[in-house]
Amino acid sequence: MAGLTVYYDKDADLRTLNGKKVAVIGYGSQGKAQSANLRDSKIEVILGLPSTRSRKRARKDGFESLSVPRAVERADIITFLFPDQKHKQVFEEDIEPNLHEGQTLMFAHGLSVHFGLVKPPDGLDVVMVAPHSPGVVMRRRFEEGRGVAAFFGIHTDYSGHARNIALAYAKAIGCTRSGVFETTFEHEAVGDIFGEQTALCGGLTELLKGAFEELVLGGIPPTNAYLECVQQLDLIVELIKKNGIAGMYDRISTVAEYGSYTIEGRVINDKSKRAMRAILKDIKKGKFVENFMKDYQKGSPDYLKKKAKQQEHPINHVGEIIRSKIKD
Q1: Which whole-number Å values give the CA distances from 255 to 80, 227, 272, in the listed order?
Q2: 130 near 91, Cβ under 8 Å?
Q3: Within the chain, how many helices (H) and strands (E) appear?
Q4: Within this chain, do residues 165 and 268 fall inside the same structural domain, yes or no?
Q5: pLDDT tens digit string along 288-324?
Q6: 8 A C-beta contact, residue 208 and residue 313
Q7: Is 135 inside a domain boundary?
Q8: Is residue 1 assigned to a domain?
Q9: Could you tell me the pTM of the whole model?
C-alpha cells in the first residue's frame, strides 16, 4: 500500500538509548508493562508517581520510584503513561516546570498533544510510540519472545535524532518484533478515538445489546440470545485478526456467510454512516475532547451517569450467569 512504512527490529538500535534514563509517569497496565520491558532490555528506568502508595507498589516490583517532579528532573526521556484526562494538570504542575533542554517527551497516544491539552516547550523532542495492546498482553508476549504492533510518530525533532530514539524505545518494549507503523499524532489521535467509539467499543457494544434485545423481544430466552450474539465473539475476532474479513468468511459455515451477505446495507446503511461522519467531524474539531475534559473537570457526572446506565443493562446480568456456567 502506497505510503505505508513499517519498521522492525533490524531498523532500530537499542544503543541509541545507551546512557539515557527513562522516567515512566504512571504505573497502571501500560506503565507496569513498559517499565518491565524496558528494564529487561537493559534500559535504566525510574518511576514518577504522585502518591506514596503507588511508589511503594513500584518499589516492591524492584523499581526506583520518585515523585513526578524529581523523576522528570533526572530523566532523559519522560513517558506519559497515566490517564489522558490528567495530562494537562500533571504536565503544567509537575512536569513542565522541571523540564530541561534536550529531553524527550514520549506519548502512547496522540490525543493530549494534538488537541492541545499538553503544549510542549521548545528545546525538546516530542515523539509517540502507541502499542496496539493492553499492557498485560504486551508484557506476556514480550516474555514469550514476541511483541505487539504499534504506531510511532514524530511531533518535534529538536535533536535531529527523534526518529532513532522513538524506534529504539519501540524496540526496547518489544513492538518492533511485530511491526511499528509510522503515522502522525493527528492521525493516531483521531483514528483511535473514532475507532473506539464507532467500531471497537461503542459501536460494537451497541450492536451486541441491540441484537440481544431484539432476540429477547422475539421470544428467544436471554441465555440463548447471549450465547448466540456475544459468547462466540472472540472466535470471530480471532479469525479476522489471523485471516482478514474475507478469510473469516472462508472459515465459517455457508449459512453464516450467506446470511451475512444478505443483510448488507440493512444494519449498517447510509443513515448509520452519516452518523459516523458526524462523529468523526466532532472528533476532528476537538468537540469530543472538549466535552470530555469539561465533564472530567466537574467530577465526571455525565461519565458516571452513562456508566451506571450501561451496567444496568440485562446483557451484563445474563453474561455473568453464562460465564459462571462455562468451564475454561
Answers
A1: 48, 18, 26
A2: no
A3: 16, 9
A4: no
A5: 999 999 999 999 999 999 999 999 999 999 999 999 9
A6: no
A7: yes
A8: no
A9: 0.92
Catalytic pick from 109, 114, 161, 317?
A: 109
Q: Has residue 242 got a pLDDT over 80?
A: yes
The reply to whether 274 falls in a domain is yes
What is the b/e burial string over 90-124, where b = at least 16 CB atoms within 10 angstroms of the residue's CB? bbeebbeebbeeebbbbbbbbbbbbbebbebeeeb
What one-character-per-residue DSSP string does 260-293 give?
Answer: HHHTTTTSS-HHHHHHHHHHHHHHHTTHHHHHHH
Average pLDDT over residues 174-194: 97
Q: Is the pLDDT of residue 1 over 60?
A: no
Distance, CA of 151 to CA of 195 (rounded, Å): 14
Amino acid identity of 14?
A: L
Q: How many residues does the chain have?
A: 328
Q: Is 109 a catalytic residue?
A: yes
Question: What is the number of domains present in the chain?
Answer: 2
Same domain? 70 vs 199: no
pLDDT value of position 52? 83
